[in-house]
């Protein structure tokens, strides 16, 4: 973290994790506390402790680019701006939008001191709650086709199935977008065993956290909503039964061998 | 986090991130502080503040299963054990080894209260330092063939290249293992543009942090060692030049369109 010079402002893109306060890193807390302006989706800003004199600029969940431009404008005026992002800003969150806005924006924006502060992403929180489903090679795919063709999503799902990656599926659905997760499951059912473990992890770390463990054969894709992260296992992903409590789900580091 | 009953011990697998203290979550710090026994690779334990009366069980970097079994034995004796892992224990770290040890171990071990606490993984730290190279669909692949056939690594690299994922390559090399990263680059050079951005991120968050940005065409795979995380871009990964400082590297959220 380099401090902004008085003449030029600074912009930090800060990840506050999935919602559990004990997953917010000290770096993220420090950057948010030190900011003159907080920019972000309202529910994320609501999770930040108010600092006297700090300006808050809450926005809707979409319009990432507008939000990024507003933050850059403030930093360009010499403000110390923190763009507050859920999860890890570098994983299907605000960081990419900020760099897109810089590249397409005013030349002066390239001189702003921009830093990214990583956070716990939804797939990590979900994995930790279940055991270690991401314990070996995996991929992370956004099912949103707002910014990419659905054919590319299908190509990546098929490649991930063929190469037997564990899959973390982000943005599986929204109020208006239901077809993508249904289409993804229809495709994966053609390519993977019906016994493949599937996890619907909703609002992990929040009061309304809900985890559903099922298998690909009978998984109901409509369990996924905007707040859900879906994990689809590889052929190696296993359930570890326990006498008390739900089974652990984990993916061994290699081919299983009695050891 | 459920507290262990006095009769049965507990085991938490705790991620302390890549090495920067400000990336250790409050949950991880709390679990380490509350543990009666810390088990882990010596350099990770050295990063934990000593608590009077706390027992430390340092081990070598390999032998993950032995370390997991030792931790489970202690928990089985009623101890409150924290297995200290670098990065995120669920991503190419200790969590999977612990569940493998439980599955193959004493039946009583399945009754131990086991929790996993996520952490910042090396790919997230590296991405944050550079900009947002993981800003869209990506995969994480371990190049170690200690526990899986090299042919499977090559299949996954080829699938990731064909479907145009950004790639985070873990365990690229060790003192004794140099061929994997060379083989991986030889394969990727056949499948991807020589202009593809490549990042060698070594010891991120530590005093000897070193980041090398190059392109696939002239990247020297021997820059990678045990402490290096390698990121290979997708066709969309871009360099954002700055008048001052190194370029940012980021992967847009979708096809680039002037906005």
Morphology call of chain A: globular
Number of strands of chain A: 13
Number of helices of chain A: 7
Low-confidence stretches of chain A: 1-6
CATH class of the largest domain in chain A: Alpha Beta
Structural class assignment of chain A: alpha/beta
CATH superfamily of the largest domain in chain A: Tetrapyrrole methylase, C-terminal domain
Q: Show the largest interface.
A: A-B, 82 and 83 residues
Characterise this structure.
Chains A, B: Keywords: Cobalamin biosynthesis, Methyltransferase, S-adenosyl-L-methionine, Transferase. Chains A, B: This is Precorrin-3B C17-methyltransferase. The structure is a homodimer. With about 260 residues, chain A is α/β, with parallel strands linked by helices. The first copy, chain A, folds into two domains: about 5-120, Cobalt-precorrin-4 Transmethylase, domain 1 (3-Layer(aba) Sandwich), CATH 3.40.1010; about 125-259, Tetrapyrrole methylase, C-terminal domain (Methyltransferase, Cobalt-precorrin-4 Transmethylase, Domain 2). Chain A has seven helices and 13 strands. The first copy, chain A, has helices at about 25-35, 40-45, 65-75, 95-105, 120-130, 150-160, 180-190, and strands at about 10-15, 35-40, 55-60, 80-85, 115, 130, 140, 165-170, 195-200, 210-215, 230, 240, 250. In chain A, the strands form three sheets. Chain A has a five-stranded parallel beta sheet, sandwiched between helices. In chain A, a hairpin with a 7-residue loop joins strand 9 (about 195-200) and strand 10. In chain A, helix 3 crosses helix 4 (about 95-105) and helix 6 (about 150-160) runs parallel beside helix 7 (about 180-190). Strand 7 of chain A pairs antiparallel with strand 7 (about 140) of chain B, so a sheet runs across the interface.
